[in-house]
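Hi everyone,

Forwarding the result from last night's run.
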Amino acid sequence: FLVLTACASLPDDKNLKNHAQSVASASTLSSASLLQRAKLKLQKGKTESLNLYAPSYFENAQNAYQEAREAYQDKDDKDDIKELTQLSIEYIDSGLRNKKVVKDTLKKSLKHRQLLRTLKAHKHFPQAFDIIEERFLELVKSIEQRKLDAALTAERDVLKEMSTLEVKTIGFTHLSKAEEMLSKAQQQDAQQLLPNTYQQTINKLAAARVFIGKNPRKKSKINKLTKSCLFASQRLFYLARQAKRLEDMEASNIEKYVLSRAEQLQRINTAAKQADVGNLSFNDQSLILAEQIKKQNNKNKRTQKSKKKITPEELDKWKRKVVLLQREVKRLRKKLK
């Protein structure tokens, strides 16, 4: 037999080489035609992701094809060229069979791997993802060696590592913006200036991380926690920034600061079409404005309700009610007689 250089040893190597020799010797195709067929087979191997599902078979197929091509260029023995070329095809075919076994055996880890890619774990944590990918390929190579039980046993640990990375990725993608705002708040001395609000924000983020760790698949709840954490950290940042300005404020700027706050309230007051209440405290102004806006909202709701068009279904409903009412009136009239 021809001996391939730098090839992984596989259980069916001997059978594949025997079959390749038999097919090649019986083939009437030229070396060039057979090389073209092997090239197409390799392309199919790439399309079928055999580098994932049958890496050793795919590697051996590439090596056999490369040696056949070099031998063809060097005008070596045609029988050897045809045998090497056919061997490349045999490895691809066997790799496709191995792919089916892998998909049937490693369903859980394949599904989890796809989930990690959907979460973009390979982009957020490439090093951790590469380690898991190597561990997964070890499972596949065990299957290539016909060690299915060993692969299933080792899969348990790989699944645990996948779950850990899943939680880490979900935590990063959902809480990274909130943590970024928290970091900005810390730069404004939020911990010293607003200790209670700071601790509340820290606790909210910690609770979200715990929930994600225990329930990484509960998307709806995680999304709600994400929004809540982001809101809290943004609020902390802007409050800390105001507190920092107050702490660093010179006496000459106090009047300007207070007037700017009054202008902000007046802006809302004007939009609400409320009489000027600038002669009241900020708190009283906010209460009056809140009440005015509440009244306006209620008025708008009533207006919208009155303008609402009656649907055919609602009309039929009222017609049925009228008929029932008419029947009841007739019944009562008979009693009166």
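The chain has 15 helices and no strands.

Cheers,
N.
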